[in-house]
Amino acid sequence: MRGTASTERPGHASSGKRSQRMRGILALLSADDGVVSIAEFTDRLGVSAPTVRRDLADLEDLGLLLRTHGGARSNDQRAEIPVRFRDMQFREAKRRIAVKVAEMIPAGPYAIALSGGTTTGAVARELAGRPQLTIVTNSLTTATEIASRPNLQVIMTGGLVRSSSFEAVGVLAENTFGAINVGTAVLGTDGISALGGATTHDEREARTNLAMVSHAQRVIVVTDGSKVGRVTLARMAELGQIHDLVTDSSADPLELERLAAADIAVHVVEHDHP
Question: Are 189 and 221 in contact (CB under 8 A)?
Answer without folding.
Answer: yes
